[in-house]
Design a protein that fits this description.
It is a single chain. This protein is α/β, with parallel strands linked by helices and about 210 residues long. The longest helix has about 45 residues, at about 110-155. It has seven helices and seven strands. The strands form two sheets. A five-stranded parallel sheet has the order 2-1-3-4-5, sandwiched between helices. Strands 6-7 form a two-stranded antiparallel sheet. The model has no long low-confidence stretch (mean pLDDT about 80). The protein is elongated and about 75 Å long.
């Protein structure tokens, strides 16, 4: 069974450039091309439902810039990563983009391999961010579950005894026993360390490339 290709939206008011994007990317991605920001924004709910992964857009277009379009898109799809292409990237454009989340800015003319590398990196970063959010959500749910269990047990067990309940610590830990609360805190600390390490590895990889 063939793997489903990631869906990428292309927004550019020039037909030739949309065709170039299609030729460059269609072997690896499912491309949805739009001639204007308005067309893209109208189609966004359907694209989101189908699993849109990334937006690539020209910056300067009639009526609305690429960043203005991204801002409107984020009101419906806050986590949508994007790449903005521009012939001139001024300081304000860069600062505005920084406020909007996971992104890349590529100055025209750009090499096709630079666009492909930026797409690959953004898709990876977006996936890592999704995993981070899921891990944090699960950790929060575990803490809520622990709190609920603790409250239920306190109806039958004195609080001073509850505080002495211990569990086996991980083998590599210096402590052999710890409380449920300590165990949860250690889990959260290790998850944060894992997420920080992932980001460091990603930054090093990007720098080397």
């Amino acid at each position: 069974m063939a793997m489903k290709r990631p869906i990428i939206a292309i927004v550019d008011d020039e037909q030739d450039l949309r065709d170039n994007f299609q030729s460059l990317l269609e072997d690896q991605f499912e491309i949805k091309a739009f001639a204007s920001p308005q067309e893209f924004l109208q189609a966004l709910p359907d694209l989101q439902q189908k699993g849109l992964r990334l937006l690539v857009s020209d910056y300067k277009m009639p009526v609305m810039t690429g960043l203005e379009m991204v801002q409107k898109a984020h009101s419906q799809f806050p986590s949508l990563p994007f790449i903005i292409l521009s012939g001139f990237l001024d300081k304000k454009t860069v600062l505005d983009a920084v406020k909007m989340g996971v992104f890349r800015l590529l100055e025209k003319p750009y090499a096709p391999e630079d666009l492909l590398a930026a797409i690959d990196q953004l898709l990876l970063e977006s996936e890592l961010q999704t995993v981070r959010n899921e891990i944090r959500q699960i950790t929060s749910q575990l803490r809520e579950l622990y709190s609920s269990i603790r409250l239920a047990l306190l109806q039958h067990i004195p609080e001073e005894l509850m505080d002495r309940l211990i569990v086996d610590a991980p083998d590599e830990s210096e402590q052999k026993k710890m409380s449920f609360e300590d165990l949860l805190e250690q889990l959260e600390d290790r998850l944060e360390l894992l997420l920080t390490s992932e980001k460091m590895i990603s930054d090093i990889k990007t720098t080397r490339e």
